Amino acid sequence: MDTQHLVPELALIEELPEHWKSRFEKAIYMLYKSSEQSPALAWEEIAVACAISPHHFHRVFRAAFNEAPGQYMRRLRLQTVVEKLVYSSDSITDIAVGSGFSSSQALAKALKRELNTSAKAIRKLRDSKDFDDLAEIYKKLGHPTAQSHQTIESQIAEKLETELRTYPERFLPAQKYSVPDFEKLMNAPSDGEEYEVIVTTNVEELSKHFNDITLLVGEAFTTADKANFTVSAGAFLCCKALISSDVGYHAVWDELYRRAILEGYELSDQGHTIEYLRNAPKGKQFDLEEIELQLPVEIVS
């Protein structure tokens, strides 16, 4: 089972002529990192730093990436905003300024224009048992395609390889986390060391309010005498992907659920979803994460 990458920037850079690839790879990385900073570099400054005239950079960027450089940076900032609104308790003003917006009013205008919603409405999604609205927001923040409403992340996800595997009982030394606390843990500053985390969630937990879901988190499966949690034996539909954002993460899960339905499986109500999360190999310019997802299923005769 191969690992499918869901990083639109890397896919689109590969389509550029050779003499543009290295310069636009550098430019995209600078745009990507600048979107996390406040104040951010202007895209014109980034173009000059990559030895491209701003006029030519804008023209090639729009043609290759299906949006203007400024639109790309605003979309990345809004991805950060949505993540912080959902997972943190920071004030809306602090989130706005920390994500590169001049004020909460400027953020409000961007959310209304791009997503037709508000910061308070997004934050209220944490109190919902239905994640479809949040999934729709992430789809709107995906990388646009040239001719359809589908995002590039969703298009690439359709190429995922899936595999049905049967596992015996597995034993995990695990700690309990809420979703916000786990996200805080994963987003904490690190020294860049490699990591692998296993996250398992009871399927029944997925019907709870967002903040009430309990995640069981460990580092490796082991023997029964060293564990405090058991994953039941059963069948799992599995896939692997390389992602750079929550948009890609949700696209992989959506595609895995879709494949399960198309292949005639039913979600095991008593099972546990399994996620292996690993940071990507060193040498990549983007902040990438390798994920392996295992969806517990029942084979319908």
TrEMBL record:
What domain of life does the UniProt record list for this protein's source?
Bacteria
- Which UniProt keyword terms apply here? Transcription, Transcription regulation
Q: Name one GO molecular function term.
A: sequence-specific DNA binding
Residue stretches making up the HTH araC/xylS-type domain: 25-125
Under what name is this protein listed?
HTH araC/xylS-type domain-containing protein
Keyword Transcription regulation present in the record's keywords: the answer is: yes
Instruction: Please name the SMART domains in this protein's record.
Output: HTH_ARAC
Give a yes or no for keyword Transmembrane in this entry: no
InterPro entries per record: Homeodomain-like_sf, HTH_AraC, SmbC-like
